[in-house]
Amino acid sequence: MSETKDAIFAAFNKVQSVFDASEFADMCAIGVYSDDPESPGVTAVVFQGQLYSLVIPDSYLNLPPNTITNVVNAVIINAYREWGADRIRLSREGLQSAHAA
Predict the structure, then answer these.
(1) How far is CA 82 from CA 13, 32, 51, in A?
(2) How many CB atoms lie within 10 A of CB 72?
(3) What is the CATH number of the domain that holds 71?
(4) pTM for the predicted model, two decimal places
């Protein structure tokens, strides 16, 4: 009975470590993307899975509506992609440190 109980506790601890790593990644991951890294214009920041900040310079307001829409959408989508990649990285790091402990 003790072996079964130990196996259940070990499985629970593994599930808990996965959950903790995932929760940490959700809270800490960040995605930042700009339309031009050399001279940023439209910039989006995604934090905790939500659009946290969106900067659109006044000079962009002179662009045709279709162009500005495409640029803003592309920047937001790529900020979410960066956030997802950071979330995966943090999850993996959390799991590795949990297994090392």
Answers:
(1) 30, 7, 12
(2) 16
(3) 3.30.1310
(4) 0.76
- Structural domain boundaries enclosing 57: 2-100
Q: 101 or 17, which is more confident?
A: 17
- Number of domains the chain contains: 1
Instruction: Determine the Cα–Cα distance for residues 11 and 89; give it in Å rounded to an integer.
Output: 23
Pairing verdict, β 50-55 and 43-47: antiparallel
Q: Are 40 and 8 in contact, with CB atoms under 8 Å apart?
A: no
What pLDDT was estimated at residue 24? 76
Whole-angstrom distance, CA of residue 5 vs CA of residue 26: 31
Distance CA 86, CA 60 (A): 29
Q: Which structure tokens are listed for 64?
A: 């045709």
**Token code pair at residue 100:** 């090392």
